[in-house]
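Cross-check.
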Amino acid sequence: MPDLGPNAALIGQPGGRQALDTPALLLDLDALERNIAAMAAHARAAGVGLRPHAKTHKSGRIAAMQVTAGALGVCCATLGEAEVLAASGIAGLHITSPQVTPPKIARLMALNAAASGLSVVVDHPDNLAALDRAAAASGKPLDVLVDFDAGQGRTGCAGEADLAALVRAAVAADALVFRGIQSYSGNLQHIPIRAERRARALAAADRLRGILRRLGETGIAVPIVSGGGTGTFDLDPEAQVYTELQVGSYVFMDVDYRRALGDGRNAPPFETALFVATSVMSVNAPAYVTCDAGLKSFATDGPAPEVAAGAPPGSRYEFFGDEHGKLTLPPGAARPALAARIECVTPHCDPTVNLYDVYHVFRGDRLVDIWPVDARGKR
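Predicted model, tokenized:
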């Protein structure tokens, strides 16, 4: 049985939220369920599939909730995530990053032998050839999507000619099954002005539409077009190009996405479901108190955490070291007492989750369960 940590005895107890040993990762189950249902309803109404990104939550339980609500499967950023989720019974896994080293390719073939509906992206002819040889040797074909760089410059074919050539090679491969194209505009997801975000998302989709038309003229059908994200979830379907959306952070929301979607906020709205609970550990300074959640408790690649509960409005949370946070109070505000609990919205939910072993799952103030972060640290 997994180690549920020092708060396991609080499961089912009234007032468990205020009794937590901290720092602790909190999950509002009611908000999570509403977010999953809202996105599923949106996708059905828009006529587009969902393959949510599990890199956000790394949880077999949450992936199963998404599939039960209608998702086709889930995306995984790493092979390790896919291995863990496949072992928990999730089908329809799509690995969104190329797997190129011999050890990764060997693991990929082992996973393909056991998993149902597995697919992976490829963006280079050498990798395509290596996967084709490995799949042939394994005795089971491997589904592939060709990755197209939509502007982020991280992975994907850099130009349309390279994309078309790789698609043709995938179609012609002996042991690979060409399933479609991945085109994820990660560079657009956090644009704070909705009109600009929409214009750039539709321009990217229009370029993709032209690519699909030219491939079709050569007799190549593209069954799957996978991309999109939480920031453009209601914009991408307008183009009627994508067949499935790789939304991820909508399940939790965070400071960055709350800001990005604040201008003409996308509908349906998504609630903040993920928090970090911290405790006041020192009250000796006159203008602030010190808490027990610092750089090792929050992702630090975005804005500062935002105070959600436990401190006066206008309070500001800052990093104060590896294990410490500084809570600065507005002038004249009542100071939280020693050991008071403060809850913060995570700056960036995905890497914050990866800092914790477990979710403390709440309905209101009652701790109803503790879930492991199943794929934490899996590469």
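The two ends are 23 Å apart (CA to CA). The mean pLDDT is 96. Passed to J.P. for a second look.
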